[in-house]
Automatic annotation (TrEMBL):
<dbReference type="InterPro" id="IPR052160">
    <property type="entry name" value="Gypsy_RT_Integrase-like"/>
</dbReference>
<feature type="domain" description="Integrase zinc-binding">
    <location>
        <begin position="76"/>
        <end position="130"/>
    </location>
</feature>
<protein>
    <submittedName>
        <fullName>Mitochondrial protein</fullName>
    </submittedName>
</protein>
<dbReference type="InterPro" id="IPR041588">
    <property type="entry name" value="Integrase_H2C2"/>
</dbReference>
<dbReference type="Pfam" id="PF17921">
    <property type="entry name" value="Integrase_H2C2"/>
</dbReference>
Length: 152
């Protein structure tokens, strides 16, 4: 049992999973040997682990919207963000829209919105475009009422 857990843990270390589950997977082999670990800690790991499915070679997660998404490897995050943001269909949209595109492609990473924001903040093309047009330079979004002074 411990050998199987250690093999699974070594395979899952590269995935971007929730920090508690990642820490729990690293220590789960020792949890079986140390029954003095708190009951609450074990329950939290079990509750987190029930949303993950290991189907070799990928790790999948059942998300809140009942969609099964593939967990992204730490090394794949930038290439997925590059594809969803700067590919011909990407369009260099903002961080929220790019993150939603990643989720629409059925990928999962718990820090996807933070990673997307950092990725777009480092995109040179987006930063050059945003310097020229800031919020202050935009047209007002409320209608302007025009009236003629001597309109009878």
């Amino acid at each position: 049992m411990t050998r199987y857990l250690s093999e699974t843990i070594s395979q899952m270390r590269n995935y971007c999973t929730s920090p508690l589950l990642h820490h729990g997977l690293q220590t789960s082999a020792t949890l079986w040997q140390h029954p003095k670990a708190s009951r609450l800690y074990r329950e939290r790991i079990q509750n987190d682990a029930k949303y993950y499915i290991w189907d070799d070679p990928y790790l999948w997660r059942l998300c809140n919207d009942q969609v099964i998404r593939r967990c992204i490897l730490d090394t794949e995050i930038n290439s997925v963000l590059q594809f969803c943001h700067a590919a011909p269909g990407g369009g260099h949209y903002g961080s929220t829209r790019t993150a939603k595109k990643v989720l629409d492609c059925r990928f999962y990473c718990p820090t996807i919105f933070r990673d997307t924001y950092q990725f777009i903040f480092s995109c040179e093309k987006c930063q050059k475009a945003r310097v020229a047009i800031s919020r202050r330079h935009e047209m007002p979004q409320q209608p302007i009422l025009f009236c003629e002074v001597f309109d009878v």
